[in-house]
# Entry
Amino acid sequence: MTQKLLLTLVMLFAAFSISAKDDKVEPLTYEIEGAGTGVQGTYLVKVTVISKKSKITEDLIARCAVHGVLFRGFSNKELRQHQKPLAGSAMAEAKHADFFKDFFKEKGIARNYVASVNSSRQVVKSGKEYKISTIVTVNKEALHKDLETAGIIKGLNSGF
Amino acid sequence: MKKHLLILVTIFLPLLLSAQAKKPTIMVIPADVWCTANGYMMEFENQGVTSRIPDYHRAVQEDMDLVNTITKVGELMAERGLPLKDLASSIRSINQANAENEMTVSRTSGSSISETPLDKLLSRAKADILVELSWKINTVGPKNSVTYTLRGIDAYTNKQVAAAQGTGAASFSAEVPVLIEEAVLQHMDNFISQLQAHFDDLLTNGREITFEVRTFDNGSGASLEDEYSGQELTEIIDEWVAQNTVEHRYNLTDATEDMMIFEQVRIPLYRPNGMPMDTRHFANELRKYLKKAPFNLTSKVLTKGLGKAIVVIGEK
# Structure
């Protein structure tokens, strides 16, 4: 009887802990700036991920880059570059929270819109954290088209 | 039963298929300042006054950079679902009209028709938004950079609805066409997002038009100061416009006994039956209203492109 109760309790706690882990959304801490003009249909951006680890996955860099392009926009004073956020503003993320929760999850769809530029990674230690910078290419045309199809952002001919 | 169903489908299908607002048309043209800087201006005499106007025809025939830039802008706009009207094709169509107009002379004095090429371009192409394009190559020592400007002008209200401007980073090695292409790619998204905001405004607050009421000087004595049940015709028309605009948004800028000029008139994109509304239909509704008792006035509707209508009271 005791064994049975114990097993039930263990299973209950295990279920809670798994569900808690699934729901936990790791906040994306990063900086983004322009890195020049990309070829047609792409953005060339420098993403600096702020992390407690010195080694981070390409997946995290990709998610940060796509997030930045969509909701923050980017600029570069030296290159005289300024780009507004593709999705309009950060409000769009809150408005379509359900969609973007899946979109930005680990190894989610966001990763597909980024190609990492080889040997461009720089790691700088800043206090207890590391700043890992990489120049990446974001396929903004495909990103725009897919989000437009999903009804998240509007196209120029929407409503006409 | 089948017959009734067929009739219903026949009535409603066209409504469902066409219940979309008219998509704004866009055309890219070189800005006047670019045409002046690159020697693509021509002089012509309009009723004794010499005017300088851009020679778009020669510009698209002779300037490869211009053709490349217009093509690139068109390609990027088409990718976003809004193909552009082509300047070169529009010019060919204007030339056809010119040839026809040149054959038209008055019977008494032999005078030909007077019209500026810009008038012809606007009226023929009927582009809702003209995108003015210009760039300038800056050279400092061995370095080149491009200052690039793109302005979207509503052809009928003459308002700037979108713009992108900036100077790119200087380069030692890049060729001028490459610098121009980079400038186009760099600025296009910001331009499109402003254009998107303008379209959103159209969809929310209605299409903005200019609207005029005039009278024919035909000796009939029709005047906008004529009274009907104690109200002047100007008041009656003013009230009609107020009732038929989106949230009563309009501006009566001028009114005399012979004319009324309405600006910033926001007409709905759809009629009550779901069909698309346009300037001509809006003006026609006023014509029909004035034809009814107690006014019993005959009027003529003239439109200029999609954005301007004139209702002339007195006769057809």
Remarks:
- Residues 11-18 of chain B have pLDDT under 50 and may be disordered.
- The first helix of chain B runs from residue 2 to 18.
- The domain at 206-313 of chain B is CATH 3.30.1360 (Gyrase A; domain 2).
